[in-house]
Fold each of these.
Amino acid sequence: MQPVWQQHRSLSSTAAVAALLLGDFGCARPGSGFEGQWQFSWQGRIGTEQAMLSLQPSGQLLNGSYRSARGSVPLSGSVHDHEVSFVVNFSGPPPYRVEFSGTLHGNRIAGQAQPQDVNGRAFAGHGGEVSPDYYSWTALRVGARD
Amino acid sequence: MTAYRAAPRTPALLLAAFAAAVSLPELALTQEHDRDTASPIKHVIVIIGENRSFDHVYATYAPRSGQRISNLLSRGIINADGTPGRNHEASAQRAATDTHRYAISPPRAYAYANVPPPGTHDAPSAPSDKKPAPFATLAAARAAEHDLADEYYPLLLSGATGLPANVIDTRIANYENLGAGAFQLTPSVKYDDYAASPVHRFYQMWQQSDCSVEHATAANPSGCRNDLFAWVEVSAGAGSNGKPQPLPVTNISTGEGSTALEFYNVQQGDAPYLKQLADRYTLSDNMHQSVQGGTGANHIMFGYADAIWYSDGHGHATKPPANQIENPDPMPGTDNWYDQDGYSGGSYSACADPGQPGVGSVVSYLQSLPRPINPRCEPGHYYLLNNSNPAFNADGSPSSRYAAITIPPSSVRHIGDVLMQANISFGYFGGDWAIYQSDPAAANPYDAYCSICNPFQYASDIMTNPALRQAHIHDTDNLNQDLADENLPAVSIVKPSMFVDGHPASSKLDLFEGFIKKIIDELQAHPRLRGDTAIFITFDEGGGYYDSGYIQPLDFFGDGPRIPLLIVSPYSEGGFVNHGYADHVSIIKFIERNWRLKPITARSRDNFPNPKTRRDNPYVPVNTPALSDLWDAFHFSAAGRVAR
């Protein structure tokens, strides 16, 4: 298995190539501003996890994938105007589900993440340290400048 | 079966190549030195819970006839039923004022007639699958946690407060008329209920202890009065993180109130398993957290018998980023609202320089004592005083890629180095280590691994060597299997997941009882292993809870208030109470004495001698700084048994 940093690097390279092939340099596509590859980061209890999102809207339905150092898993959800929500089922162990919701602003999406069907207390760490009710996430369209 | 080996540290490269070339079980052959001990103890298990002071747990504990104890009951601070005793004034709290420069013993403002009502802070409101709370279903609880004795699993679902965060905890009887000092939390709040967590950070805890040579007496020569717990909670709380103080300032602004003054009552059924162990084995009533502060610094002191410091990652001390340097001086216009301190603020102090914020007050106090205490701070070294992510992820990659507040790799020598050099096997068993290995940001909500608790995760030599990581760091699942297999390393350091570590707000004390019961039950099922194993059950720190015990200043970093220590072994049976002055490093001293090892470094605390005391006061070492090696907590011979 590759070291984590190598996986990230190869993911980034893959994403860059994909962006080039798609000619995706920050221009929102007609009908959906969400379609394409997104460099994604979200806050965990200890730190920030990086991933690559592939979003494929079809009408108000959304499909795609979430790829990180922990592997690739499908996602599904919905889009409505500039709002997006989707669920990722992680394999764990044990399996768990996280719901993401966010708002599109140009080439950037920002929103909140909340675990489902598990005790969110695990996110909190030691009492008094970090205990938000939800976690924030951002995504930047691959090829776009922050 | 886990493979343990006692790996010689040199030549490291050769060893790493060897380890990569052969299967690890073959390396387990070098354990013969494990049994070369000065006592019948061949295995030591150290279980470290979270955040309970001695008086918070054992306030009303009454040992068997012939044994004495120092606690709230024996001091007359409370009665056996938890009501104020004839000497309740000894726990009385006062408000102080500190508006210009941080002081560990600021001037008195007024005495509390009643301590401020406790808050809920971040204790969970309701069982919920979507918000921080106990588990909603037993299936989810069992999926997340593997380390409880079976009958304890339902406790993972119960005990939510029913109240919002950061409000007065109205479950507590008479919350507006609690008196001036320590008060019983139960039964209006059930023992199984979640409750708030008091502040437990470095400068706050020095200030709460309120130490001044002007208060010193023969019985309390360090002059620590322990009377500012409530005031520091409501004035400073867990830190500003460099942000202005929220207005208006009230007794509930920090969300805590006087949570610190709460205690349980073992005579009314609280902490039943911890009481049972004290009745049967040996309890220390003079064990202390080794650093004034929280989780990370205390686990580091356990692993290194020293503090570690900010560096370039290659052993050279450097200055941390400005916002990570502690500044407990009050912000202008505030009363004790620290300028830079918190879980995303200050963490380090250059304590060799009395001009650094906060440092001067502590150092002046240490040097004012009748036997002046060396702060043990090297020039130019910024020591880690509060929590910071360790330098490495589980796979040895730098954790700074995930977490902003991260201490660089440490080259400070630790107890693992000593054990490896002597070919003594050891393992760190962390709850949820297996999950964390693929989840360094802890995005997985089941991941309750405590990275800051593992002293070896800060260390370059262990974490950059895959063979050493694999040999010495494991999940608690491995411990349970190894107990079943009777294949324990000589030294096992055991840390529960954060679900069951006993930390208030994020866990409960009864869950920690369930954690240790599973281990002890498993050990009892293996008489051969039980016969030569000693289990040390303690806590990382008092969690900011009030304690009435004597505090011995050892250096800039501590000691701090007392914490529970139970010693479970065939050689510590009998319901004894040990009074030798001890802290986490005392357990290191026991290991070193048992396996005939030298101290970790020339400056580490394990060089301190065993205490000498006056006959009428076994709690106060007259040869300070001194730390017990806990040898006298065991009866290794029939003669010893009679003497005790």
Amino acid sequence: MAADILLKIEEIDVFHGSFQALWGVSLEVKRGEIVALIGANTAGKSTLLDTICGLLHPAKGAITFRGRDITRSDTYRIVDMGITQIPEGRSIFPEMTVMDNLVIGSYTPRSRGCRKKNLKRVFDLFPRLEERRNQIANTLSGGEQQMMVIGRGLMSAPEMMLIDEMSLGLAPIIVNDLFNILKEIRQSGITILFVEQNVRKSIQEADRAYILEKGKVVLCGDSCDFQEEDKVMKAYFGI
Amino acid sequence: MISPIVMGILLGGLYALIAMGLSMVFGVMRMINLAHGDLVILGSYLSFALLANFGLDPIVSLVITVPLLSGLGFFIQRFLLRRAADISDEAPLIIAFGIALILQNAIQIVTDPQSRGISTAYSMASFSVGPFQFPVIYLMNFVAALVVMALFSIFLKKTYLGRAIAAASQNKKAAQLMGINTKNIHSAAFAIAMISAAIAGAFLDDIPVPTNIGYSIFDNCFRCGDHRRSGQPVRDLSGGGDTWSGADPVRIFFRIRRPDAFRLFSHFSGAYRET
């Protein structure tokens, strides 16, 4: 079922200056899947997401999305093709209103036409954002900011959503809410690749998982295989 | 006593307009546009030339100078500053400094170093409030500055391009992830800043300006604006929250030269010598 593969990463090496962050990483995401990318700090998870989005370019290897080569494409073209990234650390436009933050999400030519429809969808998912739409973004709570950033990503009418450490610094109850919303987003047909440090939670929520360590994929498979925790522990902590 | 205060406030509007262009470029590109003042003077002398040769009123001549200067701004950003930015962080500063010097001297060669003002039907007119008399042009300058800044505010809030400029200045990575081509946004922001420079230049015409005043205009306005973010014309007007020199609005309106501005300047010129 090769046609079903939405994103395919083959053997990429990525450098930050002279420091090599990713070593021959390969990864596949099928249409409609929810895939977790797990790893400790500095394992290269964010680097991988940034490389998919074209913020970084691999020195070696190839990335294809919907069968098209995007290895050297610019970020704005990749976003218009239907990949959106929810960056870590609630990366908001702090001095704009919630509404303006959301509207800028539909900047790409492809998504401008369906701005109203997408806005309604975001407000249906996050009624809180509708209540606060005229509020300046940096006055929102951490959880609300994360909702806004996810909503902003949805405004670009994505086919695939890359989520970087959604749970960082948020209360567990909010994290649970957000994961439930991810399920809804996935049911609406959006493929999800998410990065997490929380191993147990990730394995629960994902269909499949990849474990990165020091820039290499050390383990991948269906998440039910990961239930035997000692295997994960071994990969994760090296014990 | 009242009269100079009011005149200072009225003139402050023009300075705020110039500062807005500066801070738009700084907010998006993180580059201090040392040539901004000289580009304003270029706009000023262009409308002067159009008046002297074709009898065009400076306000009418905006139809020509605005596209000309914004085109020049686009060219400068696209073909000079962008390339320089790939070399190092300081390189665009040096390019801007070079542009400032070239403009200053070119204008002196083409015209002459005499300062000149122009006379239009309204340049000598005045109006009185109670016992005080004020030149009409000062009021025109102020009103024009307010109108232009209001229009820029609306532009930044209500259009996709404006929002993209504001977004790129507030969070570059997130802006890129929204599908904004930040490189093109830099060119657009520079071109738009030059629109404000052309307008400010035209309104400066009624006040006698020497050819070499560009740098001190830059210097004064640099302290006016809020340079942390683009898209805050209101803050530029009030001179609030200036992270660089702690300028406060009252001082800007009275155009008191503060020693720290000179220190800042010598800091930058020192940086040139080092690089």
Amino acid sequence: MTLALETTGLTKRFGERAAIDNVDLRVPGGSAFGFLGPNGAGKTTMIRMLLGLTHASAGSMSLLGRPVPAERAGALERVGAIVEEPRFHPHLSGRENLRIIAAARGPAAYARIAPALTRVGLADRADDKVKKYSLGMRQRLGVARCLLADPLLLILDEPTNGLDPGGIQEFREMIRAMVEQEGRTVFLSSHLLDEVEKICDHAAIVDRGKILMQGAISELAEGGAQHELIVGVDDPERAMAVLEGCEQARGSRRSDEGLRVVLADGLTSEDGAAPAGAATAGVAAAAAEINAALVRSGLAVSRLEPVRQSLERRFLEVTSRLSDSTAEEVKA
Amino acid sequence: MNATIAVQMTRADLLKLRKKRGTLIWALVLALAPLFIYFVVRAGQHSSNAGRYAPAGGNAGYLDAVRLLALFFGPLAAILIGAEGGAQDAAAGVFRDLVVTGRDRAALFTTRVPASLALCWMVVTAGYVLLAVGTYALASGSPTPGTASMLNGYGFSLLSTGIVCAVAVGVASLTTSRPATLTALIGWHLVASPILVGISSLGSIRELILSQAIGHFSPVRIGAGMHGVSVTMSQGTALIVLVGWLAVFLGLGAWRTRTMDA
């Protein structure tokens, strides 16, 4: 697997405080990668280091296989980035702002101005002054500015901040198209779990400057979490008694949706690294056994549904654990 | 950075500057309005009492006009433009986007200087055209400067304003603040420099004052007094002072651009 972005032991200190602490990050090429963390987790600091906007205190990093900062200019040739909110010269038009960046990128970038404006849907407003643009239009112009590099890697810092729901949906579609149709890699930082879950294939969860987990979204959502079923039966009390003798069930409780059954351990490995498919198969087999046990006991089963593990739930689990233990102890 | 990219980036910097209408209009006002008012008032005085007041144009008018443009209002226009040229990327928050292109930060700084000079000299040229028109059109038969004098005056105006503009680019790149740069340089030009020149006990230290060093390169006698040349120094010393001002402030501006967190 080719890595579009890689860091080893990357650290940024402000005095005694480590904003980024010994971070090892692996971003697979051709994927949308979410860098997920609460506000103040160190996401923007990380991006600023990657782009050479601020120096790292320790560690190494590479973009598109080139070490940074040693080969920074070469590495950034095919990297586009939006850091925090996209900023422009407000007295210039959208097209003129792109000309400013194209001048620094080189002659080939000029030829990409018109296609980039069309790509983000700003061709009709390209000659309006940027001070007349809405935030959504400025975000799109920011993406157009990235496209001037014909980027293999896009680094986007909280890109949907301030967008309305329609704008967010458009943005998601654009990012997915860039990954799936154009083969670009997108590294996207966000504190919005839903956004990362909907856009990204892979993610890392960061808090207080440390990476807590990283991997495929499905692995992150399921890894280490307990698997549960919602079971609809005609007699919940008797069903709970039946399940006590069922080795696939570790416990059960009543809920608004029905009986909530916690499945026994062993569906995933200890470190949560089992493939998502294996866990899914394990849940299905356990569900079948539980169903059979209930039916054998004369219970009518009306519903049998695995509880979908969300990234949000996983995110809250791992970030809340931080207060109880050190980050090193938290493993996916 | 090859020549093509250097030219592209300089043109991009010039685009940013010339589209900044507020700065451009005020720079033109500073370069043109005082000369216009000077010629109008002097012409009015001459027409009302030709025996007492000399013509607005001619040699006398030319010398006064050169002083106004090259040593007083022209440098103010140059400060406005240089401050904008040096600080505009940081002020707009676009500097980091330029850094993200991978382009060397020294190059990002370097291209600000020719772009600012280009706009500054366009403005000063407009002022000099007005100066030339006033000098000849309002001479009323009095002697007028020759072509060589006119060209020398033009060259001096470009030199004077160009040095001030480049220093302003350096200071603005250092502070990354246009208001701070304008306050510091206009205060220095209008207040501090004349006061320091007038303190004779400072002796040769006054040779370090930029306006005094610039004045030594004037091809026309621009006299002493406020914004004239009051401090005696050799041409060599004056040259060293000019180079020193440029080296210090352009060096500081380049250093800040290379090292600042974007």
Amino acid sequence: MTRSKKKQKDLESALMTRKTGRMGDIVARFFRNKLGMLGLTIIVVLLILVILAPLFTKYPYYEQSFKDRFVAPCWEHPLGTDNFGRDLWSRMLYGGRISLLVSVCALLMSNIVGIIIGAICGYFGGIVDNVISRVLDVLMSIPGMLLAIAAAAALGTGPVKTAIAIAITGMPFGARIMRSSVLSIKGNEFVEAARATGSSQLRVILKHILPNTLAPIIVNATMNIGSNIMAISGLSFVGLGVQAPTPEWGSILSAGREFLRDFPPIVIFPAVFIGLTLFGFNILGDALRDALDPRLKD
Amino acid sequence: MGEILRVENLKKYFDTPAGSLHAVDDVSFSINKGETLGVVGESGCGKSTLGRTVLKLLDQTDGRIYFQGRDITNISKRENRELRKDMQIIFQDPFSSLNPRFCVSDLIADPLKTFTRMSKRDLQEKVFEMMDLVGLSRRYAFSYPHELDGGRRQRIGIARALILEPKFIVCDEPVSALDVSIQAQILNLLQDLQVEKDLTYIFVTHDLSVVKHISTDILVMYIGVMVEKSKAKELFEHPLHPYTKGLLSAIPVPNIHHEKVRVKLTGELSSPINPPNACRFVKRCPYATEICRHEQPQYEEIMPNHFVACHNCRKINNL
């Protein structure tokens, strides 16, 4: 009697543990990571500033004032003004809208498509892999900027289209990384065990292979944020990204380059914003990767 | 004690750039319910491939497989999936055979999740039942495999294989990655489970003392072909094939007064790729004659229930 009672108790407590489940474990591990929390804070603060830009700015980002050109950071203009006398703080916050939206969208698109294509190549191998890999090789052999320009020219302008153009350049790299991860995981006996116990191929890929391949994908993805932001400015430069006077960090940075010697703030501040974004996403990505891996528990 | 599995002239060839690799070549045997067939041979002789082909995890090149009287040689994907409930496999490496991202409960429950829709409570109850069965303490239910030692990991592998209540299990070197003391525990566990659940095993191993301990029958393989098969006791007492003699004489005997008569095998393994029509063992056989070089020996019943593939078997053994 007591024995069966004890078993009942075991079961109850297990079910309680179960309730929070693996997802709960991951979330708990994630929030325990201090560096990750710093990253999250940076990203959240940036997002709040950018989304609620009208609340935090005094001047519209497009208002020019020729008597206030190159004003050093002061109370009136926290980050100073640019060569047209536009308030840099306003331009930073409004510019973040395009930069963050487009770069994150591009990142998600390129990696989701890359993961799917890479997983197919790595898992099925053979002729499928060969054909797709050669197409990816062709895409990778074209310089990124050129490919983005071609894609943007074909698609037209607008944030989503720009994001797609940038995603196309990043996708082959994500797919390549995914493919090699899948190849290395596929050889493990637990994949064979999953098949031997009746898992369908889709289940094997989604539950057994994919979770074990995410680490390099996440690192690659977070590193790409910075280059994506710069790619937007590159497209804008040839008139295929965002149109002036819509601000955007990369464009402000490259437009300010000629004033670097005389008025550094115009370059420093966009660089700081891009850097903070990159840093924030990077440590956030690392924390996510660690949280997803039960082997790195504490 | 009916026959549960019969394999006839099973062949499994792999295409390699160098040619056709004969991993399993013309292997036939049958196993009765509740018995254990030990498959021994050195690395690369096709033991594991044999196990996987019998389970239909690999498609055979030729031959027939009958399971519980039914021909499963050419079954559909769907039937193959159903077959998983009856045939399972225990893997060699308890480190790579468990998904590192799954906790013990999830690992054991995984096969059940693919076949049934059970409530969390029933699933957990079943998992606990299996953990009790294989001697894994319930407190490890939410541990991850990297936190456990090899023996416990292997118990997870066994629980996972047993949760679907199969009748037939291929044990692919289940103890060769473990310490000797743990080996004994796992072997005893496998034997207890066999009696309790009326299981039939194919026990693949290169360790002769293990196979002696657990097998009813023993099948000796050499580069894809079967060279000798008999009851376990008979094989250890009267090995007939020169290769088996060599293998058996290599077992260390824990007795300092025991004078060893080693049958040394020299030379190296011949290649399994496009093997010529000759005895596969000819290059290392001390008794090789002309016929061995030109003809593959037939598999004969030299003594009751004792099969050997050797041209000179009778001469060597004075039969």
